[in-house]
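Retro notes, structure queue

What went well: the backlog is down to a handful. What didn't: a couple of records were mislabeled last round, so from now on we paste the full input next to the output in the thread. Example, using Carbohydrate ABC transporter substrate-binding protein, CUT1 family from Noviherbaspirillum suwonense:
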Amino acid sequence: MRRTVLRAAAAMAALAAAGLASAPALAADPVEVTLYYPVAVGGPVTKTIDAMAAEFEKQNPDVRIKAIYAGTYQESLVKALTAHKGGTPPTLAVLLSTDLFTLIDEDAIVPIDGLASSPEDKQWISGFYPAFMQNSQTGGKTWGIPFQRSTIVMFWNKKLFKEAGLDPEKAPVTWAETVDYAKKLTKTDASGNVSQWGIKIPSTGFTYWIFQGMTTPNDTVLMNSAGTQTYFDKPGAVEALRYWVDLSAKHKAMPSGVIEWGTTPKDFMEEKAAMIWTTTGNLTNLRTNASFPFGVAMLPAAKHPGSPTGGGNFYVFNKTSPAQQKAAMKFIRWASEPQRAAQWSIATGYVATRPDAWDTPEMKKYLQDVPAAGVARDQLKYSVAELSTHDNQRVTKALNDNLQAALSGTKTPEAALKDAQRESDRILRTWRR
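Corresponding output:
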């Protein structure tokens, strides 16, 4: 992963050098924009963000970007809201798109529309993929701008496919095919010990998000756009959870119990799993570190393909000065320019968030070299918003806990989702009055 980040920093630096031969002198008193970014303090990804900030400052000497690395997404949200309540909010933060309602409820952010209201600004806002804007807009306003966004995709090991007698160039495209392939790819010794699993689908960290990777292809949406109602126990959701549970309980092609989000890519690279589901943001990591040829595919279809979107948005915080908010918007516009969005996607594996980024020469060449990079983009036409509601942390915890109970065998899928819906109704009832 370190090589990925260093390559990202180099790509950003090269991008800056292309047009900065005669940068103007620094302004005497630049406006300071504090940027909360969700990576561990001192982590190598800070080199990428620092390089971006330096490039931007060369082009915009009237602005100073002060990046603060605030930990995980969850830690970043807590720190940003604590600072907001304490009267010293960040100017700008990259937080989960699903934090939208939480940030609005805390009166922590300002609508982007109020800062970018010209016809040109409106055209710019309309230029992002609609699937990403589902978690960026509500109530007729735009609150966040997509930055490091993703979908869930399936990776498969072509070498192990060939060894199992499967076409190494063809991934399973339906639920039934996935079961068939996974069973053929699972290796068990005479003592019953599994040395290679057919598939691993993680169930920690973002359990609800992975679950949407099954409900979406089953034509089932888990919440309304206002964030006031969930539909966890609908028949399509129960059917999706039953499919997930059966991969281990019935078909014995996936480990039982919970599977760690963070170790799933490692298990894939160590060939302990022939197929995995994970974020497309792992593409560059796997390209850099996998020792075997692999493929990338859309998630298998039940009624049609589909995945929830995921990842982080830019948010501009309230209780900051008009000058800071204006400077923050300048940085957001700069970071989402087509060429830069293309470079960010190439360097990290995240999906370039605008169609015009895919029209750049850099991205066209990248797609010729790495066709798999287009899978997540093509999946956007089937994508839905990631689960997001008012009081989102409690609602998603209720769902996550019950999903894991079903996967661990302590509840049936029906009972788990009925309990999750009951708890969600209790949490959200005040928002429906």
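Agreed that this is the format going forward. Reviewer comment attached to the example: The longest strand covers residues 145-157.
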